[in-house]
Amino acid sequence: MDFSNNSTKAFTDAIKKMAAEECKKIDDETRLIKKQRFNFEKEQAKDKYKDYIDYELVRIETEKNKKLSLEAEKSKKELAELRSELCEKVLCRAGEEIKNFTESAQYADFLINSANEAISALGEESAVLYARPEDIDLLSGKGFKAVADSTIKLGGVKAVEEKSGCLADNTLDLKLASQREWLLENSDLKI
């Protein structure tokens, strides 16, 4: 019987040993499957959130660029308004200086020279001279026939050749208007 107990014990031990080895294999395989599944889930989550993070970064960048663009446009508009205001102040001051000039003795010489230049540019016999209503007497006193033109605000003269309709504009109005363009182009007040 001892032999039978020893053999049963050896058989039982062998079964337990095999069962332990199988359990260890199953445990190792389970750990490996869990680890692989964990790594797979981790990579999937990483990919999912990476896409979300990339999307959010692009969305935030787009929103920031939109705000910057709106602010830049707002700044350009403000600068344009300031530039226009400054230009108007300068031209208003120039207009005051021109008004002072038209009330001076030198204006009479300027007006006569302006009339001579305009008429000679078009031909004396067929040119009609136009001037401010307040300058008509001054021109008449110097031998010029001029027609009153209320569109001339600052001074100077225009001459129109009747046959061709050619115009020689030698008015202070035109000179000031051309200075407005020059001022905007050359003042270094860029937007």
Fold topology:
Elements (H helix, E strand, L loop, with lengths): L1 H101 L2 H18 L4 E5 L4 H6 L4 E3 L7 E6 L5 E5 H15 L5
Parallel strand pairs: 1-2
Antiparallel strand pairs: 1-3, 3-4
Quick recap of the structure?
The chain is of the alpha+beta class and about 190 residues long.
Core attributes:
10% strand, 73% helix, 2 domains, hypothetical protein PF0899 fold, alpha+beta
The tally of beta strands, per DSSP, is 4
Question: Which outline best applies?
Answer: rod-shaped
Could you tell me the mean pLDDT?
Answer: 85
> In the residues, how many domains can be counted?
2
What sequence of helices (H) and strands (E) makes up the elements?
HHEHEEEH
Distance, first to last CA:
112 Å
How much strand? 5-15%
Q: Count up the helices.
A: 4
Largest sheet composition: 4 strands, mixed
